[in-house]
Structures are given as C-alpha cells and as structure tokens.
Fold each of these.
Amino acid sequence: MIKIAPSLLSADFKNIEREIKRVEKCKVDLLHLDVMDGHFVPNITLGPMIVEAINRCTKLPLDVHLMIENPDSLVESFVKSGADYLTISFEACKHLHRTINLIKSLKVKVGCALNPATPFSVIKPALKKLDLLLLMTVNPGFGGQKFIHSVLPKIEEAKKFIREHKLKTKIEVDGGINPQTAKLVKKAGATILVSGAAIFKSQNYCRTVKALRE
Ligand code: DX5
Ligand code: ZN
C-alpha cells in the first residue's frame, strides 16, 4: 500500500496551519518536514521549535527529514518536539550505527537518507536496523527540483535486497515526485512517496494526492 507524505517545504508558511488542514483532508499518511542547516545543504529551513508548533496543528505522524551535519546533538530535541520518524542523512554521519542506536533508544522510528550519487551498498550493513530507507531522487536542499531518473535502478536494488533478506525496512523516495514519476518509483519498489511542489503548487491538493496514489 502506497503512503503519501506531503512535504511542507513548498507550502505557504504564512498560513501553515491552514495548509496542514487542507492537506489533512486529503487523507495523507505522514507530514514530511525538511530540516536544513545551511552546511550539509545550501539552504536553511526549520528547527525543533517549528516542528513542535506544527505538531500542535496536526495528529498526522511527523516524518522529520534531517539534512544537517552532526545530527547526534539535535536528535533528542526533535524527538521532544514530536517527531515520529527521524531520518538522518548518511553523508552527514561520522558514526552511523551510533546515531541510529541513539534514535532507536528514544523510541521513534529511524530512517537514513542516501543522496542520489551515493550507492545502495553503503547502507547494507545498517539496513536491518532501519524502519525507513529514504532514497533521494534530487540533490537535497530545495523543493521543486527535477526528478533524477538514474536513481531508479537503486530503488530496484534496495527492494530486491530487502525482499531477499526478509527485512521490514520501507523504501521512501523524496524529490521531484509528481503523478508521472510516482508511477516509476512505485514500479521500482518505493512505498512511501514524499511530494512537495506537486501538491502545494497545485490548485486542488486532494486531486493531486489521489493522482499520486493511483
Ligand atoms: C529536498 C527535500 C524534499 C522536498 C521535495 O531537499 O528533502 O522533501 O521538499 O520537494 P519536491 O517534491 O518539490 O521535489
Ligand atoms: Zn525531504
């Protein structure tokens, strides 16, 4: 079953509560929050304070995507702010198992993201500990970028490995997902689709969510 996680990055932050209510009506599964630090990625977005405020606007599970250096020092604050899923960026972790164990000890779901240029093989040793494998289909930093098609074989490779090793890890994709690319990533094996601009720049959010699901 496909899950849809709208990314608030492309929502109107002046009216964020209204945006959340609008998207909630479309029966989405998760709310995806992009945390950027201006170091790991060339953009700055939101921190624990805003995650906590968003958490008070919704009952949807919060899928917090950390695009930050040294995540260890901040994971506890994000969990306290209401994160249900906490995803770190592989390329920003010096001691991956330590960071994964830290997140697991805080009793939330843990994910790890791979940039488009990072091969699947690097995450194999840690995969069984992960609830989510987030395969980036754009270079992280901004909403509204173009889907990178060369990530498709990596999604297939991950799906095959997960099936063969009977793991429970879910494959999430993020970046340039619209009703056309959704079809491709679903076929390749993704089950959680993050989508920002396609939803929040559309006239009718629910029609777009339905098109993504179908
Ligand atoms: C990109 C973020 C994404 C972004 C996706 O760095 O991680 O979550 O919001 O936005 P779209 O769907 O517009 O590519
Ligand atoms: Zn994201």
Amino acid sequence: MSTARTSDLWWKNAVVYCLDVETYLDSDGDGCGDVEGLIERIDYLAGIGVSCLWLMPFYPSPNRDDGYDITDFYAVDPRLGSLGDVVTLIRTATDRGMRVIIDLVVNHTSDQHPWFKSSRRSKTSPHRNWYVWRDEPPAEPTADVVFPDAEDSIWTKDDKTGQWYLHHFYSHQPDLNIAHPAVREEVAKIAGFWLELGVSGFRVDAVPYLIETGGVPGDVDLDPHGFLKDLRAFMSRRRGDSVLLGEVNLPPRPLRAFFGDDQGDELQLLFGFPVMQAMYLALARRDARPLAEALEANPPIPPDCQWATFVRNHDELTLDQLSDDERQEVFDAFGPEPGMQLYGRGLRRRLPPMLDGDQQRMRMVYSLLFSLPGTPVLFYGEEIGMGENLDIEGRMSVRSPMQWTDEPTAGFSQAPPSKLRRPLPEGRFGPLAVNVTQQRRDTDSLMSWMERVIRRRRETPELGWGEATVLSTSEPAVLAHRSDWEDGSVVAVHNLGDEPCIVDIELACDPHSTLVDLLDSGVATHPVAGDRLELQLERYGYRWFRVQPPSGRSAP
Ligand code: BGC
C-alpha cells in the first residue's frame, strides 16, 4: 500500500468541514460570527482532524438568502471582516495543515449587484446580456422553481424594459448568462482572484442551473459541459492542485456526466446525493438494502475524481430522488410534523434529533459516513451532535450558532442572547446539554469518538482510494462493503437494525487472512473461516477491519 501516492490528489481522501463564518465564533461581541473568531478556532479544527475547510459565502450581500445573494465577488462582507482577515485565515489554516475551499456562487447574483442594476437599466446597457432576458417567458419552462413557498415561476417581469429575466432561485437572485463570453471570463477572473489569495478550490453552487440558460432554442450558443471543462482547465493552469466540488443533485447517470470524460476533466468532486437519500430510506426502514442498491447503482468514476459523502448539509435534507411513498416513509420516521418538513421534498432537521439522540445509532451513521466510498464532508456542529432550532424559519433552522460552552450564548458571542445572529436551540440539544467544552473532557463523548474515527479514517487510505464492493450478508439490516486498493483491503460492516444479530458475510478474500479491528469494538482480531466471516453485532453495531494476509505486516 503506497501512502506516498496520496498527496497529489488530496481531495480523494480529505476530511472536509463546512461552516458559515457568521455562526461560528463572534470575536467582537456584536452577535455575529466573524473571520477573527474563526481564526481563533483553527487549532480546534486541526485538532479534530479536519483537512479541508469549506467556507459558506462571506461576500458582501443584502443577506436575503444567507449570503448566497452576492453583490461583490471580490470582497468580504464588512460584518464578517476584511479581505486581509480572510488572507490571514487562509494562511493560518494552511500552516496547520488545512486547505480552504470557498463557495463559488455564480449561477446568479443579488438583484442589488451593480451588474444587475446596470443590466436592468436599459436594453442597451453593457451588462444587459450578462443576465437572461426574454420578451416572453417560454410556454414550457425548463425547470421548476427551487423555492415553491416563495416563487411561482422562474421568470419575473421587470417593468422598466417590459422584459422577463430568468431566476432559478428567488426573484431577487437573477441568473447570470453563462453563454455570454464576458460572463465566462468574469467567472474565471473571480476563481483566479481567490486562487491567488491561497484557496485550494471551490464548492460550486447549483451547477445544473449554472449551465442551463433558460431553454429558448436558437439563441444560445453554449456547450454547457464545455464551460465546466474550460473552468477546470483554467483552474489547473493557475493552481495544479485546485479542486472543484459540485453541488449537482441528480440521479447517478446524469450526475456522473459532471465528472467529465473518462479521465475526469470537469468537476473532481461531486456530492453523492443519490446515496445520501437512499441512506435515509435505509435508516427509516432499518434495512440496508436501499443503500446497498444505491451504492451498486453508482457508475464507475474517473481515477482522479471522487464522491463527496455527507449526512447533513446547510440546506433542507432533500429527499427529492425518492418516490413519493419512500419519501413519506422517511418523513414518518424522522420528521412527522409538518413544521419539520419543507417544500414537500425535505426535512429541516439535523441528524441527532431525527434519531431521538440515540448515541449508538448516531455513531453508526457517522461510521457509515467515514467508511462509504468517497470523501466525508461534515457540517459544523455534527462533531458534537448539535440539533436544529425549528423556531428559525425555513432552511435556516439548521444554521444556528456553534455551541462551544454551556453558557446562555453557548460561548459563541459576548452579546446578550437576544442579539445573536440566530437563536440557539433549547432543551436536549441546546448548549446546556450539547457543547464542545463538556465533550472534550469526556472520552466517551460523540466528539471524542469522532476524533478517533477521523484519525482512523485518515490512516485508512483504502476507503478513499479503493474500489468498493458491496458484500452479500445473511441479514437484510446489515450492510457490508469491502474497499480494495493496491494490495490492501478494508471491510466495513454496519447494522442498520435496532436488534442485535449474528451475521454471516461473504468476504471473498484470502481464507487464511486475519481481520484486524480498526475501531474500538474491544476484539482486536477476527479469524476468517474459509472466505466467510461470522460476526456478532449489537443493535446499530459497526466494525471496520483491515484484511491482513497471512504474511502481512501489522499496523498500529
Ligand atoms: C445552496 C443554497 C442556496 C441556493 C441559491 C444552493 O443550492 O446550497 O443554500 O440558497 O443554492 O444560491
């Protein structure tokens, strides 16, 4: 096994941590997190084993979509800090061995962006064609509105010129016209600017919408994937190890297309939405088969590319790829009240309350996250089991401040609680019960467990680099998979059921091997009987094993 080979393609085995500066740590007591606060927590993040930070948008913004409505792509919102602060942050993170990627939100701008103000001024404005204008909206729109609670069309009429503009998201977020060469050049300029300041790449927002320009035939000369290939080539010229992580919520086949050709010349990382959604169905049923099927349905991916795996992110837990009945099963299990659901397709909850705080079950889910094929992405607060605050409107319920201590403001801010950027949850998942300070002193806490698992994950490159195979098991509740890379193999076993079981697994490995336990199950090694493994698992039990051939060298 050659660990030496793993550094160039660092994204194949990273541990990514997503956070929003404004909800992480407030250094100046105004109730809003800031870049200086985050810099104070860089050592915390390095300490839990994060290797790449993903920063949600910190650009100037009227904040009508939590910063995803941008008025200047080359600056920092003064509420959060300065450009100098961001460079210091990147520098400090780099020094502690962490890369930084940032959100690249170029499907749209805010309607307050100077480009849009100029564009809407007249049909002859130099920025007119930077956005997508039509005399009439197409009779059959190419897409549904993303936020059906707020919009009923992806086209809005602008009274000034009597034309309609395209916006896949809110009407205050007009879509940029990526078919326009000047817009493409500007996007490259934005990417180049931040690469120059030291970021390692971008999480690219809303990619399918970005390359879709309104579907009026005949007037757009755009090879959509050509744009992504050009952007990727540009980035690689500027910085060879830079990465594009795409938000593309599509079924496996169309999703695969965003990696590009056989060599992978578009986005290197794609969030694995189909597997994530199937995982929730499997959890709801306590039956591993939907997850096994989703893993098997994943097409092979180019060698330099990778899935980004996740349990939760900053948006609603979208279940739009499940059938109506399947989605209802997940709703019934994890978010039965209408106030927990959103847009008819998702849940505005974090994992721990969905699982009623069951520590064993939560750990099994995070063990899955760290062992399924891909690069794991954590959302801030997952390491301590934070819950959502359903009193906060819409998708923002999962974006409450980070819980550092058991104080009324959770150690997030010195401001009075009423002045916080968003209110903290109360009760079982509030800061009194769930916070970093208490968990770091407790070796049995979720956070201590998470640190150990992340460490093990980083020492187990087979999981990120290997080819994964789903193994057949005697128990429908149990998922077993094996990752093979070079001459090493790792086997992971997860019991999604709430009953203990004895499971028989077809390992298909050298019958004289030994299985070395990589987590802390208490049993260091297991013999393999023939090429099968009989294993006793607790309810929601999980194991990771390295397959050690008879003559193999053992690792700690
Ligand atoms: C982001 C959302 C955002 C939307 C519009 C998304 O897909 O994840 O949080 O509201 O893009 O930018």
Amino acid sequence: MTDIQCMAIKASKDDRAFQILDQKLLPQTKKWITVSNTDEAYEAIRSMQVRGAPMIAVVGIFGCAYDVINRTHELEAARLDPLCVTKYTWKNDTFGTSNSFEEASEDDLVKYLTDYAVSALKHVTKSRPTAVNLGNDVEEALAMIEKSREPWQQIGNQLLDFAFDKMTNYQHADTEIGANGVEWTRKQFGNDPISVITICNTGSLASPGIGTAFGIVTCLHAAGLLKHVYILETRPYNQGSRLTAFEAMEKELPATLITDNMAAAIMQKDKCLKLAIVGADRITLHGDVANKIGTYQLAVLSRVHGLKFVVAAPESTIDFRNKDFSTVTIEERDSDEVTKINGQQIADPRIKAWNPSFDVTPPKYIDAIVTEKRVCAPADIPNVN
Ligand code: MRU
C-alpha cells in the first residue's frame, strides 16, 4: 500500500510530506495543510490543528518519518555532488565516529540518521503531555529503530512503514471498539433504542477509523439501537459544537447539540437517556481516566441520574507505567481559549482564567472500559492478555 487516507490525514509513500485537515477551521472551511517534518507536526499538534489522542499519535510519527526521509534525500544528494554539501545546515554535525560528512562511512551515516530519528521522536512526544498514545507508539518506534539493521537509506522508510501500520491498526481498533460497544450496550439495555450523551470529539477526526466513543455511537445507529445522541458543546475549544456536531450531520445521526451546563437538565428530561459514552487520553493502571475537561462532571451526573458511564479507547491509551495521575501532567492551555471565543474577547480582559484541557474521572464512576480487545471494569485494566 503506497497511499493512505482518513478524514484528517492523507499520506503517500511517494511524497516527501503528508497532509492534515486543519481542524481549527472546521466546520466552516476545509483546508488541508502540508506537514513535512517534526517541527511542523509538533506545531500542528500543539496548536490543535490536529487533536484527539490516536490522531495526535499518528501525526507525530508521520512528521518524524518524513523528516528523516527528507534528511536522507539531502544526504544522498550531497554524496552525489560533494560540492553542494556546503549548502546544508547539518554539514558541521558529527557523523558517528567521523567529524565530517565527507569522511563518514556507511556505519557513521546509520548512526547519524538513527540518532536523528530518535531525537525527533523524543521531541514530538512533548507536544501535548496528557494523551499517552503518542508516547506509547513512540516507545515502540524507538525500540524498532534501535534494533534495526537497515542501511541508512532505509531508516526513514522504515519509520514511514511504521506510521502506515499504526494508522491502519487504529482504523481496525476503532471498528472493533464499535462492535464491542454495541454488544455491551445490547447486553445492558436489550434491543430497544436508547439515547446517549457524549463529550468532546471522539469520531473520525480524532481517530483514523470510525472513532472511539463516537464510533460506538455510529455503530449503535447502524444497529438500530440509537434513539438520539446529545452532544456537549465542550468549551472552551468547542470540539463538540464544531467537530462532533459536524460529524453527526455528515453521518445523518439523530443528534442535538447542548451546552455543557445542560447535561443534568437533559438527564432529568429524557427518560430514554441511559448511557454516557466518552473517549480517553490516558487510562492508568488503577482505571483512572483522563479525558476532555467536563468528562468528570458528566460521570458524576450520570451516576446521580442512573445512566451507565462507558469509556472507549484503544489499548494504546493505557499507561502501564502509572497507577494514577499523581505524577502525570494535566495540560493547561492558554487562558485566551476561555476569555475569547473564535478570537473574539468575551470576558473582561482583566479577569484570569483557568484552562485545564483534561480532568480525571475516578474508576468508581466508570461502568465499563471498551477497547478493541475487551470490555472490562476499570479494576481489570492491568489484566490484558
Ligand atoms: O484536546 P483534544 O481535543 O485533543 O481532546 C480529545 C479528547 O479528550 C478525546 O475525548 C480523546 O482524545 C479521545 S479521542 C478518540
């Protein structure tokens, strides 16, 4: 396979860059932007032109892969025409055991490109600290590169193959999460259609396939089990109103947009509303779940109103290193995202705003965690096969 595409990413093995759909402009404008290296991927993730834990992971790895490929092409060009070496900024770098590019052996170039790839991958994981998928996938990529015996010309291609595989794996995982979610819902509520509520964007803009939590919503609709979906606006970044509402309309789902402070009221009003389905950016070994700010209050409200509360995420969202969030950074973003809407000042400019991007839902509020491999209680998270 030389080309791959999803709703938010287009890539080809024949190109020197890939494309991402600028999610900051949706739904009004569909603009694809070109990303050709680690720094551009880092910035697209940091600025949230691309977001959602699995999509961030794929974009980060694609950015590093094309970066290494572009550097490889520069090295190849310089080898063919030694006079042009002077035009490259890297000409004074160290190449393995050699201090000059001209004298570098094949092994020196392997070492140089391996180190280059490793530092690119380590750097891109810092773009957003809370979602763990990118960190987990980077660890796998690092292990692959460090034991690789490929010639230096192939290191970038090997990383690009890895990015393609990751994207395909996330697509398959989404499909399995959808199927597992439908099966679980049917067991809980039978064949009568139910209403569900969700937060943030967990659909095809957030994960390369049908999405995670919103993938389940889509599958419930396809199975005739969805009466209605309520979509929380998800201030301050409005992933719900800008992105999930758009995806719901594209997929022709029976959907209503509500602001975040309407969640309790709709739970009181709609007696068919029986299930909250949310995504996750990191699940720790004790089953604590970091997800979009507002998820925790949705969990507490769900318990009070007798709704089941389900978290949907691929296995790569599990942080097997941390029992809880005591040492994990919860990203805090610019206060402008709270005091302004679409760049328009709303609040008094003198007021300070707190803007944590995520909150942590304790396991006691979570009825089930649905992954591509299993549906389990939070306490069973460590027991993966
Ligand atoms: O800040 P975002 O938009 O990247 O946050 C995304 C979420 O919190 C999603 O719910 C989560 O990543 C799951 S995406 C499939």
Amino acid sequence: MTGNRTFTMIKPDAVEKGYIGAILQKITAAGFKIVAMKYTQLSQRDAETFYAIHKERPFFGELVEFMTRGPIVAAVLEKDNAVEDFRALIGATNPADAAEGTIRKLYASSVAENAVHGSDSDENAGIESNFHFAGREIF
Ligand code: ATP
Ligand code: MG
C-alpha cells in the first residue's frame, strides 16, 4: 500500500530567487493539498540531522552550508500516491536531467542548488514530517 503524504522543502536558492509562490502554485495545481507549512531556517544541526543519510558523501559539507544559508519553506503534502507523484513533479536531482515542466527543470540551477526537496519513501516522509512538525494535531 502506498501512503498519501509526503514532505517537501523549498530550498534556500529558490526562496532567494523569489520562487516560493510559483512553486506552491505548481504543487497545488498538481493536486497536492497543503496539510502543514512553515517558513523557517535550518540550523547547522538541523541540516546535519535531516541529511544524515548523506554524511559520508563528498558533498555533505556543501549541502549543509547550502541548506542553512537562508530561509526555507517546509510543508507536508497530501495526495494519493504522494511520494511517487511528488518526485515526478519535482524531476531528477540534477536539473540538467529533469523532464520538461518539472519544478527542478523550471526553477533549479544545479545538482547542488536544486530548488526543492521531496521525500523518497513513505517511511522517510513520516520521519521528515515529524522532524519539522512533531506534536502538531494533524499527526
Ligand atoms: P532531496 O533529498 O533534496 O529531495 P534527491 O533525493 O533528489 O534530493 P539526494 O541524492 O537525496 O537527491 O541528494 C540530496 C541533496 O544533496 C540533493 O537534492 C542536492 O541538494 C545535494 N546533492 C546531491 N548530489 C550532489 C552532488 N553531486 N553535488 C552537490 N550536491 C549534491
Ligand atoms: Mg533525497
């Protein structure tokens, strides 16, 4: 069975460029309902914890520096088949490989600064939503 929720962040690059409204428009137009949302900034520790799975990768330091350099939007989204459908909507990690019309094709500039995050499994969607919204009544 597939879940009906996923978790997203609009990353610092997209916030800096003024793309919050355009990206939220794409998300809601694709049929996702926003269940919870906040405008916030990750601390170094937040980013290291959130992306802990990548801590051995050569780009980890760059990733943490990027994700903490400015505000982000964090949100929980609801739709049938949410994780898979949202990954399709955002496109490949590297915007050069992302399909036409995807959020990363439209708004990302590089594999590092790729505009949005999308959970990669139902389990991680739950973990990541709790990381940002633990204790909220919706959960
Ligand atoms: P996300 O988890 O943010 O949705 P993703 O699942 O498409 O992205 P991951 O492999 O999980 O991709 O990588 C996490 C993030 O690390 C990427 O979104 C990107 O910001 C950064 N990243 C990935 N590969 C590289 C790289 N080769 N160089 C620099 N940064 C990278
Ligand atoms: Mg990922």
